[in-house]
Amino acid sequence: MKNYSVRQYQESDYTKWNTFIGQAKNATFLFHRDFMDYHKDRFEDYSLIILDEDKWVGVLPANKVGSEVFSHQGLTYGGLVYSFKTKGEKVEQLLDCLLSFFNDSGIQFFYVKQMPAFYTSGGNAEIDFFLLKKGAFLERKEMNLAVNLTVPLTISKSKLMHFRKTERFHLQLLEETDLDSFWELVLEPRLLEKYNGKPVHTLKEIAKLSRMFPQNIKQFSVYYEGMIVAGVTLFETETVVKSQYGATTKKGEELRALDFAFITLIEKYEREGKMFFDMGIVNDDNEKGYHAGLLKQKEELGCTIYSQDFYKMSIT
């Protein structure tokens, strides 16, 4: 096996880390240190760098809880990151090197939250094979709903019929740099009312992130007679647009304002050449393990089911 070395990320690695992420085969802006570090007070960072002498050949965005390593609990997806030139056999060597480092460091369990396959045009399945071969098991699988924008759209007839009817309401979909109205007037009150919950990001956090990543984090809000009634917060990568948040007021529900926003945005990004519109998972704590109504709603918007896989590996 190639004699790689592994060490933990340090603040002095900031520039090199971000440069590596920017050129990697299977990375997005979520792995940029500015994004990862916005919630560093909540997680014990355990990001790792794999070196071939002094050359960076892989990184693992990760956090640590006791003797367990996660990739990464504060991110939607994670996993071992490497360059386009890294072939299958070398991926196995990088993983072996990581596992050896974990063993020497007293780590007992390693958890991997894989990136859905449609995020990487160059493929990203090597690590799945090697994880399973080396003793990991598939802890759970989530249904990830996404619209494939490279094939004809399959939005349901009923959704399109209601979409055309919204023309009489003269709804306006506006891109905004200020997220305050959506957060304070729509998202936060709606989550509190329906689920007694809060957004993962506070308004202060998402505002800071949107200033840091203006090309990646975008806010689209729906207005009716000068009043905000719905909105969608998007995380945009080179090929994929993800609906990170979507919510509507009660008046917006009457107007079907959220469907209006989604259909308009799906068509917009199809024209602009994006490959997928990611609408996230539909998991639920019920006995089925998924929210049937949410699944139906997203499928009617043209989504098909992809998977997001979660692995667990015992190190010792």
Q: What features would you highlight for this structure?
A:
316 residues, alpha+beta, eleven-stranded mixed sheet, three-stranded antiparallel sheet, 14 strands, 28% strand
What features would you describe in this structure?
It is built from 10 helices and 14 strands. The strands form 2 sheets. It has an 11-stranded mixed beta sheet with strand order 2-5-6-7-14-8-13-12-11-10-9, sandwiched between helices. Helix 3 (88-104) packs across helix 4. Helices cover 33% and strands 28% of the residues. The mean pLDDT is 94. The chain is elongated and about 65 Å long. It is an alpha+beta fold and 316 residues long. The protein has helices at residues 14-23, 33-36, 88-104, 126-133, 157-165, 180-195, 203-212, 250-255, 257-271, 292-300; strands spanning 5-8, 44-45, 48-52, 55-60, 63-65, 68-71, 109-113, 137-148, 172-176, 217-224, 227-236, 240-248, 276-281, 304-314.
